[in-house]
Specification:
11 helices, alpha+beta, single chain, globular
Length: 598
């Protein structure tokens, strides 16, 4: 029986605070040669949702960036620093508030005793459950009381989700890149390279540095202290690109070869080809083909998250060594245990309860499915895209843009939930006997539950299209409409893999605007709609309802004062909707802006 939980609103302040600032210093050595430094900082408090929901509090994000711009060389380097401040995990907060009152085992024992007493007194099942819960919850911390608030503050500072709720992540992202225009450099040295040929080369490097917090990340490398030594994850790459303009510059061809090396994988080559044909100045056809590898992200590779009943771990071998080989798919375990329960209930023989259970386990153990997935590999994609854009009618008053893409994946990165059978002491079960494994997995205590990042063994394709039309009616009126369609297909279903492709198939937008109807007054209306879609995340699974919203804006320009006023609203009709499951309902946002030009 699950313990009595707390409402989220009792654990968190939903106030949103955002503060952003930036400053930049530019120095121009000579025309075309400039060095720039930029600093950006943001602090915010809000609620963030991923596998759990978090209160981000005193969260600080900073970035330092240097950019060098020259006719031949362009270089950029930046460092992004992240500090989660006094943020905390809402799920762990609720669980450990309960445990502060009574440990789980004590609560369960008191519940069981109260249940037995209630049933013995002749109460119905529903009445007995209510009585048992009331008895077991006696003395529980109540929201709003001084004791509750004091304990909430204490748990917010305990950086162990088995005991507290603190989210204490400190991380740095270090990135540097440079690009050289080889064709321009050759021309500047007096070379006779054709003017219609372009040649570029570049390189980049990225390193993540994470201070292990013990809840989200640890350092798994051999010889490293999991909680003391920083976790470092890097990638280095480079490219060469050749392009040319032919047929009086009506045809533009480009070929690119990119090479990348990740700390945990071999060198990967990624070619790309593009072609653009302009039969007239008002229209163009475009075509591109590319193949490439996507290395696992920091979270996909190294996550170490205790999400309550299930632990989510990264798919690299250093994080999940032995789990893939010894686990069984949750989908098969659920089907097995459901069948076992049904078989026990249907067994009317004279067998004992233990004999009925063993018989049901033996008859249904074939439903268990050994985990067929393995450690993470880079995701490989081949992509084809075609498009057409044209300005039609006199002065291009009708603008049309159509695009279609098709992606084919190999080793598509997704998640699978799999459980390892364990002994009473929590050690992985060593026997290969299926009956022993089945008996162990039939009880919750015999399951070490994991959610793993891995690669799909199915053929995965993603395709879609977008189309947009903008029409200048006359007298400053603009009409616009665009629509998008996107779809993910897999050759297998029910294989236990969660692809997390949470995207509506259809979405469209309609707009009408005029910046100057009369007397420097303008307006704009924008309607957007998306179809309902099935969403699959660790936090919640279900259907996101379709919704449509209307945005509106009025503007007034005062030329003499260089002032522009804007009065508007997003979702002006205040029709509440959700854009993702588990998130807030979104209503209207109304605003007034004043812009002054110098």
């Amino acid at each position: 029986m699950a313990r009595t939980g707390y409402d989220e609103r009792d654990l968190v302040d939903y106030t949103i605070k955002i503060l952003k600032a930036d400053a930049a210093l530019h120095y121009r050595f000579e025309p075309g040669v400039e060095l720039a430094y930029a600093y950006r900082v943001a602090g915010f408090d809000n609620v963030y949702q991923r596998s759990n929901r978090f209160r981000l509090q005193d969260y600080l994000l900073q970035q330092h960036a240097l950019t060098l711009t020259m006719p031949v060389v362009q270089a950029r380097a930046y460092a992004t620093l992240e500090n989660t401040g006094k943020s905390y995990n809402l799920r762990s907060m609720g669980e450990n508030l309960d445990r502060s009152f009574q440990p789980d085992a004590v609560w369960n024992n008191e519940y069981a005793m109260a249940w037995n007493a209630a049933v013995g007194a002749g109460q119905t099942v529903a009445q007995a459950h209510a009585s048992a819960r009331l008895a077991a919850d006696a003395g529980r911390l109540q929201p709003g009381t001084p004791a509750f608030n004091q304990r909430l503050g204490e748990l917010q500072d305990i950086n162990n989700w088995d005991q507290g709720a603190a989210l204490r992540v400190k991380a740095k992202l270090l990135h540097a890149e440079a690009q050289v225009n080889l064709a321009e450099a050759w021309r500047r040295k007096g070379g006779k390279q054709p003017a219609n040929i372009d040649l570029l080369a570049g390189a980049d490097h990225r390193t993540y540095v994470v201070v292990p917090d013990g809840n989200y990340f640890i350092n798994p490398a051999p010889g490293q202290d999991p909680l003391q030594d920083d976790l470092i994850y890097s990638k280095t790459g480079g490219f060469v690109q050749a392009g040319g303009r032919f047929l009086a510059e009506k045809l533009r061809l480009t070929a690119t070869l990119r090479v990348d090396k990740n700390d945990y994988f071999d060198v990967k080559l990624n070619p790309r080809f593009t072609a653009v044909f302009l039969p007239t100045q008002q229209q163009n056809f475009r075509l591109s083909y590319q193949s490439g590898y996507r290395f696992p992200s920091l979270f996909e590779g190294f996550s170490n998250v205790n999400s309550g009943q299930v632990k989510r771990i990264g798919g690299l071998r250093v994080m999940s060594d032995g789990v893939f080989e010894n686990s069984y798919l949750r989908t098969g375990i659920d089907a097995f245990n459901t069948a076992v329960t049904a078989a026990i209930n249907a067994n009317t023989s004279a067998q004992t309860a233990a004999q009925k259970r063993q018989q049901a386990i033996a008859d249904n153990q074939g439903r268990l499915v050994k985990n067929p997935y393995t450690y993470l590999k880079p995701e490989y994609i081949r992509s084809l895209e075609v498009g057409y854009k044209a300005g039609l009618l006199p002065q291009g008053r009708l603008l049309v843009d159509v695009d279609f893409y098709y992606n084919a994946y190999r080793d598509f990165i997704a998640q699978v939930e799999a459980y390892v059978p364990v002994t009473a002491t929590g050690e992985p079960l060593t026997t290969a006997d299926l009956n022993t494994v089945a008996t162990t997995l039939n009880a919750r205590a015999g399951q070490a539950r994991y959610r793993l990042w891995t690669n799909s063994q199915s053929r995965v394709t993603n395709y879609g299209s977008s189309a947009g039309v903008r029409y200048e009616v006359g007298r400053g009126y603009l009409l616009g409409v665009n629509t998008t369609y996107t779809r993910l297909r897999r050759t297998q279903n029910g294989d236990g893999l969660e692809d997390g492709f949470n995207t509506p198939r259809w979405a469209y937008n309609l707009s009408v605007a005029n910046e100057n109807i009369v007397g420097n007054v303008g307006f704009g209306l924008h309607y957007r709609h998306q179809n309902r879609y099935f969403s699959q995340t660790f936090l919640v699974v279900g259907t996101v309802p379709a919704f449509g919203t209307l945005d509106a804006q009025l503007s007034y320009h005062i030329p003499a004062a260089q002032v522009r006023l804007k009065l508007g609203a997003s979702n002006v009709l205040n029709n509440y909707y959700v854009s993702y499951l588990g998130g807030p309902s979104v209503g209207g946002l109304y605003y007034l802006t004043v812009a002054y030009g110098l």
